Amino acid sequence: PFTSFQTSNQRSILTNIFEKEKNNEVNYTIVNRIDDFVTKAFNHQGENKFLIPSLIYTKNPFFGLNDLPKFLAPFNYSFLEEISFLKSYLHFYLSNNLPIDLRKDHWVVGGLQTYLMIKYIEAYYPKEKYLGRIGNLKLMKAYTLADINFNESFWMYYELMERSNLQQSDLLSKDQLIKFNEKIGSPYHVGIGLRYLEHYLGKEYLDKVLKDCFNQTDDKRFSLLEILDKHSSKNIDWFEQFYLKKRLPIDIKIKSLHKSKESIQVKLSKHSDNKVPFLVTQIKNNEILNQEWIENMGTASTVILENLNPDYLAINPEIRLPEINKNNNWRYVKNFLNTKPIQFNFLRDYESPKRNQIFYNPVVNYNLYDGLSLGSRFYDKGLLTQKFTFELMPQYSSVQNDLVGKVILSYTLNNLPKSNYVTQLNFFGSSYHYAENLRYQVINPNLNYYFRTNDFRSNKRHVLALYYYSVKRDKSPDPIGNPNYELVNLRYRYSNRGALKHFSLGSNFQYSKKFGKIDLTLDFRKLMSNGSQFSARLFAGKFLYHNQQQTNFFDFNLNRPRDYLFRYKYFGRSETDGFLSQQIVMGEGGFKSKLLPASANDYLITTNLTFGVWKWIEAYTDFGIIKNQDKNPHFLYGSGIRINILPDYLELFFPAHSSYGWEFDGRSYETKIRFILTLSPKQLSNLFSRRWF
Q1: DSSP letter at 269?
Q2: 468 closest CA partner among 493, 489, 442
Q3: Residues 304/313, Cβ–Cβ less than 8 Å
Q4: Which of 28, 167, 311, 457 is 20 to 30 A from 644, alpha carbon to alpha carbon?
């Protein structure tokens, strides 16, 4: 049901964004205000008839507002409709009044749209918070996320990409951008930049630019960049040549400071050599005492300020640029070390540049030997990616009546111009129980190199990783079967994951005093035109040397890998019978039927095939050759039905026929059913981000 509105600018607008049963006078006020706001901003009437269907908004929604059902939305529904209409109106207005190539110059439309949305919210909803009414809850008062303004979302969502090293040049054509950058990243980045230019050069500057941009004659037209330069009283080459063109991030840092009674000497640094201007500000009791523009600075500089006895020195405290680290923009000056106060918060929060944040929350884990492990998680990782993170997780085992837990440290280095786009150094240590009254301890430092192509739309990824493992175990009745060990593990993985085709290749080399081995895994999936899926997996592993007299603990396994590297999420790590022993991970042999011989100390070659039958019901078959030293190889196979409810997260396998014959032999068939189950919140969250990244 479309509704027609006649505005004070004599423009006829037809739209179905507003609900029909709502008060039409309220809707008219909103439509007229938006129409008047945009028309005055550009001083341009343009078309007198606008058709703005909800389809425009559906294709280009305001990220974050449309992700919750109406009854859970933290904003008044009238506000949601107004922002939806504003975004759609701007898209229609700009697309129809700017004679530009929308594929090549998409950033002009997206940037102006974002800039006007920022200005509109500043004018009519200056007190609107990012969390809406949720921010008014008493439980949220201590959180930075509840205190930030609605407009902060434009900075937040762009920095989400920048800190993941996924940002792209705004000047690239639309067909070269990944979906997030096309719909969100680039429009937000340009709009934020225009708002920053206004802050730097004055409101009247952008007023002239917008009016000049829309009121040109057809015989000689200037681009937006030419008009920006034409009206600027200062050199703003940095805006095009660095801010829009390059994908280098901005990181302006207060490196150190020295106070005297009369002055404050401040050392500043930049991540890259650019001429982006910025403000150095003194703040006391949340009020700005003084601010000074720093222009034409290279990678480092020192400035001397009059000492006004501030609480903080800050860079761009009001209108800021997106940065990969804004915590180093603020420096507390009220103690000897100039260190910020520490704030403890329940659950993670949006980063506060005024405080050092440590988060905590209760954790509950389960495995058969520790039972419910209750404890707390202490960590410093906020909502956005950080260069360094730590995680401490002390827990109390309800079965063993003892402390267990783990520690994780991670340092991430973004290599912007290189195909090796991320290098990550991690340290992992854990201590739990692997059997009743028997504890294990794992120390695992590792180094990971991540590679990608220059085409960000490509799903091709390479990972090269080096791991060191040191595993110590309490002595068990079977010390040969459960040894202590140290080993070096070199891994390589290539993947190209798409919605229709998925291909990955992984290789693995392990070296220790007890053994050396190498393996290769190929994984292929294809979605057929009829909606069914075909998948094929190949595993081939070979021991280079093996002291079989010492242990068989490191053997290849047909249906349930030993997991001595602690890579898999087993609920019952040492179980050989019972429900938990029926858990399967697609590692090594990948067989669903439990056949003998199950382990190999020479080589193992298997294939696992699945064929779509109907919707999420599939038929599977496994083939394998297993070989032990000084013994003849065995050929084994198994087949059955796979209920593929959620690939890699929730799957059931019902064996039907194998090398042993029919599995329906009347002997406890329920014990032969296998399952895949993922309970990790982090892994499950990947299901909801695949369409954007």
Answers
A1: E
A2: 489
A3: no
A4: 457
pLDDT over threshold 90, residue 108:
yes
Predicted local distance difference test score (pLDDT) of residue 284: 94
Burial of 154 (0-12, 13-18, 19+ CB in 10 A): buried
Q: Report DSSP state, residue 248.
A: P
Q: For the purposes of burial, counting CB atoms within 10 Å of the CB of 558, is it exposed (0-12), middle (13-18) or buried (19 or more)? A: buried
DSSP symbols for 665-677: SSS-GGGG-EEEE
Q: How far apart are CA 559 and CA 550, in angstroms?
A: 23
Q: What angle do CA 248, 252, 255 make, to 5 degrees?
A: 135
Element containing residue 609 per DSSP (H, E): strand 603-614
CA 82 to chain centre: 29
Q: Is 187 helix (H, G, I), strand (E, B) or coil?
A: helix
CA–CA dist 538, 519 (Å, integer):
11
Cα 157 to Cα 180, 385, 401, 475, 488: the distances in Å are 10, 12, 44, 51, 39
CA distance 675 to 579: 10
In tens, the pLDDT along 147-186 reads: 899 999 999 999 988 998 889 999 999 999 998 999 999 9
Neighbours of 388 (CB within 10 A): 11
pLDDT of 481 over the 60 cut? no
Asked if the model's pLDDT at residue 41 lies above 90, the reply is: yes
Can the peptide bond before residue 597 be classed as cis, meaning omega within 30 degrees of 0? yes
Burial class (CB in 10 A: 0-12, 13-18, 19+), 237: exposed
b vs e for 350-383, b when ≥16 Cβ sit within 10 Å of the residue's Cβ? bbbbbbebebeeeeebebbbbeebebebbbbbbe
Contact 634, 623 (CB under 8 A): no
Q: What is the pLDDT of residue 692?
A: 46
Cβ 236 vs Cβ 246: under 8 Å: no
Dump pLDDT digits (tens) for 418-470.
889 999 999 999 999 888 888 889 999 999 999 999 888 888 999 999 999 99
